[in-house]
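User: Sequence in, structure out. Go.
Assistant: Echoing your sequence, followed by the structure tokens.
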Amino acid sequence: MQKNSILFIVFSAFTIFIWYFFLAPQQPKQSYQQPVQTQDTTVKIKNTNLDKSDAHNTYKEEQINIETEQYKAILTNKGAAILSWSIKEKNGQWVDLVFPESAPVMANFPGSIYKIISKSNKKIIFEYVSREGWKITKTYNLSDLYMHNLDISIEKTNEVVFPQITLEWGPGLGTDSKEIRENISLTRVLAYTEVKPSQLKKLKDNFETAALYKWAAIDNRYFLAAFIPEKSVDFDKIIPSRLDKKHPYSVILTAVVPKDINKKEYSIKFYLGPKGYTYLKTYNLGLEKTVDFGFFGFLGKIAFAVLTFLRNITHNYGWAIIMLTTIIQILVLPLTLKSFQSAAAMKRIQPIIKDVQTKYKDNPQRLQAEMLNIYRSQKVNPLGGCLPMLLQLPIFWAFFTMLRNAYELRNEEWILWVKDLSASDQFMHLGSFNLNLLPLIMGIGMFLQQKMTAVTSDPTQRRIMYIMPIVFTFMFWSFPSGLVLYWLTNSVISMIEQYFIIRKDAVRVKCV
């Protein structure tokens, strides 16, 4: 293998290592705390005053349990809010999208006890009448899947000023135990612009004017909670808020009721569920934009479409990954062959290069001239193995990101012990240590591949070549098995291609 090829592999490994281990920091040990939302102090002050004026209501706090085939929810009449919202995944596992420390979410005036007007699995109506003379009615209209509706009606009987309406989810969005380590770094507040061409915007520290956006949301790698107002002009601000960098964001949607009216109604759809790209696209709201396909997103979307097509044929995402990897290798075969041919040519002329290096080791200028003459006479380009690999990097990175973020791979089996392509394969548990077999097989394959193409006599470069499989094995150890399967398949196909290139080159040398 050429020095440039080694540098390419080192660069690729370094890029992946930095992204995975440093841009996805571990979960802090302290529990989540409700952020102090300095941008929303007016709302908090008003809520405090309302709590004091609630004494004339004698209703007791009551919880309402909702259970369907796809989700289980717990609502409370304190703030007419959500305490828990668990969705059911394909393997039967339940994932609560509400952190216990964040509950309740979607509350209005959290200290106020609402009267429950009616309740069922489809519809829940809460009502609260304040001492000041205004009334708020919250109606949850629930579906069997993930998209629901909330109607808020507020009216007054005198000249009292309406309080501000807020809807909040967070801090944070729930996920399962496998993803909790990186959840804070992946939790985002997003908004989708109203003006076409619509764009997804990541919100951090500053609030945005709600009327400019179709919806606001909070998400993590695999799940999404989105507020979609029927009329975005009815709302005032979208506020991203968090206590500090060690805590996740909240998303807050606010509305200021006009002073000159006695009644105002709001209607908001809200989505609580997985970030399945194909499923989200059916809503035609741009929610599928929350699925992160990375810097080379257009290539990732193409790869995902082909992967889905192949899965429909094979009925197994594992075999679909192998087939798609093979297709990608066929498409980039001209580049791959050029790289391998260059490596084989470099290996063929190594004895000549070594003799020249020994002969002119004390004359750098003459050495350089002789090296160029060798390359020219043998028709070998020393950079020929590097450029084709660099051209493949966008394809590799797009495929890598797509497999890392595709919800569709969650809880999908391949064969034997590989039960979840979105998680490490966990072949065997040795105490607290997980023995992952696929990365080990991948590392052995990479070692054999390195040995097949070794062209350097430099001891340092040879050490790097043989260390790389160990580095990749360590790096891929906790990666989703779908990613490891992709890289393993890629290595096996590359070894086959290299074998035939080396044989062909050996025959050519004998003929000469």
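User: And one key feature?
Assistant: Residues 481-511 form the longest helix (31 residues).
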